[in-house]
């Protein structure tokens, strides 16, 4: 059957492209093809019996299990931990193990650790004589002095098996290998014990994930104790022993197990810990136990230890001790906090369901926490569980705790460390800024969220920081904006633009210790990517279903990136390989430029109509400046001066229609099939607007094209073009947009809501807009020569007493 081809006439041409757009529009030469939609399975591990192609645990998935029985004592005066532990290790792998690896995280503070000996010096250096010296902060000097004055790292002794036989140990930096007296076969268990001790670091001096904080005004301390006992490294199906050294950035992956921990502290201390308190009758007063019971059903937090009681504790001090006994089931780690300064409030989260109907949300904080903590900490804990459970699974543990101390933010099963505080004013009141309020809400939501990821969905943080920080940052953005959407949560696509166009970056899929900028790479970029995936690409229904499927599949298990990628694809039913490849494996960025918009009109094939239209287009072209000036001067053309010297072409132009063309048109009509003629007649009657838009991908990262079309009548319409439009040419594409006759376009905007992290929104507008910016008036300073010290004058300066120390100092730095 003959097919007709109709033509479209472009009668409005676009503005010229920029040089960058012109360069990007060059046709790809032979051999330069890049497939942005190449399937990711080529880069992912091959599915096997442990991890399926669907991204779920395979039929023979396994992981080890480790149970701990620990007795630990806090020496408050010496700032020292001493402990003993008995460990039960179950080999669920198909392999026979001749040795076990343990993590010795406190060894990171030893002077000869890899982390310490590879620290680099960051300052601008110049050879002498130099106007300005290099910089060394007082904080760094304080750190050096503390580490020089204190013996840090573990002291380990008495490593024996359950028969009391010595076990050979080898310490390698932050790891220890225990050689077993007998090989541990699949399905078998081994028990062993050891003693350990270490000096606790002062967190403010050293900068760590745990430590103590000393308060000079009252002589007391807050102890946040984590990474405190030798812990079994994970043994996995994808890496065997995860025995990379602890360098500071890459955190941990651990095995699940049960913990029985007895913590001996000064008798006036309050202790918060992973697990459930097993001996409340021995360490809490009857009043405190009564208040805890009341808190289970209270609408607002109830103080178990109130401000007045905490202040009394601060004043006393004692040589007596108490032992707090905690038990925790099916957790991958254990942390605790202790201080006589703690207030303690609690509120029952009535979760319902079969998993854990009642969760006790609790906060522990000193007077320095003030109303900020009283109002918001425990409430934020509850809010986090409510939101996270919607997108993953019910919170499975009996407690969720927020503890204030020197650590800005850190997470462990059932307990989190969070830093913001109030400020003591001269009138004795305590106030906090809006930034501190937002910080508290943000850090509590984020750290409690970590109890889900990675404390339950147990990803490998030493390998892939983004798998816990990125996923959790995405979800804390969901929870945070459900608390208060006006707070900038840092997970919007616009929040990652400056990083994505920077030179100092690595792909998200970079091993944790090799990431150059941890914050944007591990937190913001993956969170923004997931935000885009949910809101722009998949939509909430598909994304939420797939994400919840991932969380529930890998609850209490150890997923890898491949498991996440495959689950999100398999459960959503959408091919996302292009998305993972671009966002997680490259440093490409999003920059889609709208270079040209052609407005076209359908030719009628009727020469009387089409040639008339072409004549009108020709008439609309600007007249030559030469001709205009000649007319203005009254000059007449030769033909005007000699009208008798004319011929046929002075009366007819190239748009004159002949009967030959009319006959051809009539023949064309007769040759049409009925359906073809009907189609043509309808198209001519509707006379729609045809627009061809030319797009350039300047950033290399393929993404959907989000369009906002603004019409002549003032109305607007959103159009969504899937990322697959770039499949055959990721550099340049053209798209035909058809609108009704009465809906001519006046402007087009790409990504009007800034939802795709496009780094240059100014090439998203057509026609281009005038760019708003700012300018500031300033007074030019006179150039000054280097000011030397006027010792003759400066020696007359009075030496100020302590009473005048806050007054302006007339002195200066030595020159």
Automatic annotation (TrEMBL):
Assigned keywords, A-Z: Signal
Region (Disordered): 796-815
Signal peptide: 1-23
Compositionally biased tracts (Basic and acidic residues): 796-808
Pfam families recorded: Peptidase_M1
InterPro entries: Peptidase_M1_aminopeptidases, Peptidase_M1_dom, Peptidase_M4/M1_CTD_sf
Record-annotated Peptidase M1 membrane alanine aminopeptidase domain positions: 376-583
PANTHER family, per database record: PROTEASE M1 ZINC METALLOPROTEASE, PUROMYCIN-SENSITIVE AMINOPEPTIDASE-RELATED
Protein's UniProt name: M1 family peptidase
Species this protein is from: Pseudoalteromonas fuliginea
């Amino acid at each position: 059957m003959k097919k007709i081809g109709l033509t479209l006439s472009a009668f409005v041409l676009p503005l010229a492209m920029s040089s960058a757009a012109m360069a990007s529009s060059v046709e790809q030469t032979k051999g330069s093809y890049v497939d942005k939609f190449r399937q990711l399975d080529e880069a992912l591990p091959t599915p096997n019996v442990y991890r399926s192609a669907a991204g779920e645990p395979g039929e023979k998935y396994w992981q080890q299990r480790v149970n701990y029985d620990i007795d630990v004592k806090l020496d408050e005066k010496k700032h020292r931990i001493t402990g003993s532990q008995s460990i039960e290790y179950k080999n669920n792998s198909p392999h026979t193990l001749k040795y076990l690896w343990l993590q010795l995280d406190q060894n990171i503070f030893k002077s000869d650790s890899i982390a310490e000996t590879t620290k680099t010096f960051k300052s601008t250096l110049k050879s002498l004589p130099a106007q300005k010296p290099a910089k060394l902060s007082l904080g760094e000097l304080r750190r050096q002095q503390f580490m020089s004055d204190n013996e840090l790292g573990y002291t380990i002794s008495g490593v024996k098996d359950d028969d009391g036989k010595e076990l050979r140990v080898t310490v390698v930096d932050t790891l220890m290998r225990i050689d077993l007296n007998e090989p541990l076969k699949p399905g078998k268990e081994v028990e062993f014990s050891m003693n350990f001790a270490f000096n606790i670091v002062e967190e403010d001096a050293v900068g760590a994930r745990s430590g103590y904080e000393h308060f000079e005004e009252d002589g007391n301390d807050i102890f946040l104790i984590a990474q405190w006992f030798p812990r079994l490294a994970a043994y996995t199906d994808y890496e065997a022993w995860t025995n990379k050294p602890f360098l500071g950035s890459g955190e941990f992956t651990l095995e699940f197990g049960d913990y029985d921990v007895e913590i001996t502290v000064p008798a006036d201390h309050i202790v918060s810990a992973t697990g459930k308190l097993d001996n409340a009758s021995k360490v809490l007063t009857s009043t405190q136990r009564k208040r805890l019971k009341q808190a289970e059903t209270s609408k607002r937090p109830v103080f178990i230890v109130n401000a007045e009681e905490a202040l009394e504790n601060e004043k006393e001090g004692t040589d007596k001790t108490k032992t707090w006994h905690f038990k925790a089931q099916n957790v991958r780690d254990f942390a605790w906090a202790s201080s006589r300064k703690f207030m303690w409030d609690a509120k029952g989260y009535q979760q319902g369901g079969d998993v854990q109907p009642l969760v006790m949300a609790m906060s522990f904080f000193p007077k320095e926490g003030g109303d900020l903590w009283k109002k918001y900490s425990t409430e934020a804990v509850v809010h986090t569980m409510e939101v996270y459970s919607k997108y993953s699974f019910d919170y499975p543990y009996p407690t969720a705790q927020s503890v204030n101390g020197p650590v800005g933010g850190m997470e462990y099963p059932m307990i989190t460390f969070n830093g913001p505080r109030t400020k003591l004013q001269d009138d004795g009141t305590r106030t906090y800024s809006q930034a501190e309020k937002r910080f508290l809400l943000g850090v509590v939501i984020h750290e409690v969220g970590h109890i889900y990821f990675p404390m339950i969905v147990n990803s490998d943080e030493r390998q892939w920081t983004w798998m816990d920080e990125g996923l959790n940052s995405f979800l804390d953005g969901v929870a945070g904006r459900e608390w208060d959407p006006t707070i900038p949560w840092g997970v919007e696509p616009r929040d990652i633009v400056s990083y994505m166009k920077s030179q100092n970056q690595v792909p998200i899929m970079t091993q944790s210790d090799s990431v150059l900028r941890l914050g944007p790479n591990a937190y913001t970029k993956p969170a923004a990517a997931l935000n885009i995936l949910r809101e722009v690409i998949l939509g909430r229904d598909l994304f939420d279903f797939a994400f919840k499927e991932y969380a529930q599949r890998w609850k209490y298990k150890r997923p890898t990136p491949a498991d996440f990628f495959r689950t999100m694809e398999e459960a959503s039913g959408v091919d996302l390989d292009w998305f993972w490849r671009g966002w997680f494996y490259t440093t490409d960025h999003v920059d889609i430029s709208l270079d040209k918009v052609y407005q076209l009109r359908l030719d009628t094939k009727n020469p009387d109509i089409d040639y008339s239209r072409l004549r009108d287009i020709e008439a609309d072209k600007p007249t030559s400046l030469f001709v205009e000036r000649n007319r203005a001067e009254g000059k007449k053309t030769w033909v005007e001066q000699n009208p008798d010297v004319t011929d046929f072409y002075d009366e007819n132009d190239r748009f004159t229609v002949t009967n030959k063309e009319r006959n051809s048109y009539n023949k064309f009509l007769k040759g049409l099939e009925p359906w073809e003629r009907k189609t043509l007649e309808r198209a001519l009657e509707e006379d729609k607007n045809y627009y061809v838009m030319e797009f350039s991908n300047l950033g290399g990262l393929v993404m959907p094209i989000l369009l906002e079309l603004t019409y002549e009548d003032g109305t607007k319409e959103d159009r969504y073009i899937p990322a697959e439009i770039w499949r055959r040419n990721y550099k340049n594409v053209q798209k035909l947009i058809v609108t009704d006759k009465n809906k001519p376009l006046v402007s087009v905007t790409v990504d009007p809501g800034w939802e795709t992290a496009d780094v240059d929104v100014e090439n998203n507008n057509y026609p281009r807009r005038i760019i708003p910016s700012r300018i500031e008036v300033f007074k030019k300073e006179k150039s000054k020569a280097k000011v030397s010290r006027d010792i003759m004058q400066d020696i007359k300066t009075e030496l100020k007493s302590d009473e005048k120390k806050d007054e302006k100092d007339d002195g200066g730095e030595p020159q």
